[in-house]
Amino acid sequence: MLTNKKVYKIGTRGSLLARTQCQQIKKELEELTGEKFELEIIKTQGDLNTSVPLWQMEGKDFFTKELDEALLGKKVDLVVHSYKDLGSERPSGIELAAITKRSYAQDIFLIPQENLEKIIKGDFKEDTFIVGTSSPRRIVNAENHLGKILPSETLLDVKAKMLRGNVNTRIQKLKNGEFHGIILAMAGLERLAKDEKATEEMTPLLKGLNFAIMPQFYFPPAASQGALGIECRADDSKLKEKLALVNHSDTIEEVKRERRAFQSFGGGCHLAVGINVRKHKDFFIHHQRGEVDGKKIEIHLTEGNEQALEYAKKQVLKEAREGSILAFLGMPNRSSDSSDSSKEDYRASNIHYVYDQVISKNMIHGDHELINSSRKIFVTTRYAKGRLPQKDNAHNLSLWAAGHKTWENLARQGYWFQGCSEGLGHLEIDRLSRESSLIQLLHTLNFDLRDKHYTVLSHKDAQSPLGPIVESYDRKTEEDFETGLKDKIEKVSCFYWSSKFQAKKYLELFPNIKDKTHFCGHGKTYDGLKELEMSPIPLCSIREYKEFLNQISKEL
To answer: 73, 87, 85: which is closest to 40 by C-alpha?
Structure first.
């Protein structure tokens, strides 16, 4: 006897984004389980009231309450949420059954091309740059840091203005001139760009807009942003088994840490702190930035190297001389340069830094055939600037930077970047741009760019999976470095390296340093130091290195 096969109903909000991401989950579940799923649209309070910022509305669970009621009332069998909308306290009888893979947790900044060109040319005459967002964390971080990545010789004064509504409404308000730029979640736009019907609706809205994927160092997103949470009734064991098939272990580990940090600050939609945790190799990279009760929050740390740090701490304390620490910082001493990370110092009188006197970098200037023919360029360092076209001719290029410091330095010289690799290496740019349907769409619409390959501005010996190398600076080993440098280097307790090339040259000159304590970033330098058998400890920034040393200095 034939029986009708059960059709599972998925509860969803009615916005284009909510429907699109549910359709994608529906398709994935049907392929994995062989079952049939269909969507049930449910209106929520958060969708109906778009005139007031969420953190000013009375009550809570603005995007989930009606969905919870439908689930508990058996009107639907499961609900798909943007996981960041789920509070820590959920109704009895409802269980989180799956957290899906996220690829893009970042925020994305959209700006009309005409506004961008005015800024680059120095013709932006407004007293303030108005950015649209209603998120407290975006307000705080945009007003404090957005000016750093805008291509202006002087920092623009940035102010936030309330922006609510679905994605289409927000972008249309930007196109109408209500804002100079707006900030959105990249993950949502990415899901829309993967859907043919949604892309048709989005294309006219995105036409004429330039973009930047905002660096996590300054603009960490909301905790759990980019991940989808799927809930069902706690007693539906058969469905829970099916939903578990779309669980993603790395994402689960990341958002678990993010939500723990979120709760440590008090939680709630009013929280003005961005929180992101990224699993990279065997480590978790934490970025937290914002404000709580008038206190600035800035946390950048690496989780997973605690044992190595504890051992390094003992070694540095052991080697400290006369109550002071001698530490190597693999960069020139540019302490007078306001763009230099050494200005972000926690200066302690008993820490003395030795800067790089052995390696010098010199810009190579002039046009190059590859640069003239390519419009996608990866800039590995500020020293590559000599190969870039004049800033007025560079606004129609797609420029990407190795890190936020390179971006920030060249922004002060009028250059606009689409994003950076956050110090994680060339393949991060591949993931951000060539694998993203959204970025491909924006490239095609606004740059007429369909190139798969980048031109990479680096040194002559460099190799990159992104595309061909253009020699943009040379590296020389100085012969006449400071008298007594050898003695000073051999007294250094720990080293922070900026490249494998640098570490290798120092090892050749001062072989006794190999067994000292070595730090570096998470990208190519880490892999290179491992090849040199230097047992490197990865950190997310020079700032984390200085924080480590300052903690030790207090024990001397």
So the answer is: 73
451 an active-site residue? no
d(CA 292, CA 198): 37
Q: What angle do CA 344, 350, 354 make, to 5 degrees?
A: 65
Domain stop point among 460, 475, 490: 475
Find the catalytic residue in 61, 68, 77, 85.
85
- Active site annotation includes 164: yes
Query: How do residues 7-36 score in pLDDT, each as one tens digit?
Result: 999 999 888 899 999 999 999 999 999 999
Q: Which of 26, 102, 148, 170 is catalytic?
A: 170
Instruction: Report the alpha-carbon distance of residue 419 to residue 219 in Å, rounded.
Output: 12
Domain total in the chain: 4
**Contact of 432 with 419, CB cutoff 8 Å:** yes
CA–CA dist 216, 211 (Å, integer)? 15
Is 375 known to be catalytic? Answer: no
85 is catalytic: yes
Domain-embedded: residue 218: no
Active-site annotation holds for 137: yes
- 138 tagged catalytic: yes
Residues present in the chain in total: 556
In whole angstroms, give the CA distance from residue 74 to residue 370.
61
Name the residue with higher pLDDT: 456 or 392: 456
Q: Are residues 181 and 324 in the same domain?
A: no
368 and 471 co-located in one domain: yes
Q: What is the pTM of this model?
A: 0.91
Which has the closest alpha carbon to 182: 80, 107, 124?
A: 107
Q: Which of 9, 26, 137, 385 is catalytic?
A: 137
Q: Is 233 tagged catalytic? A: no
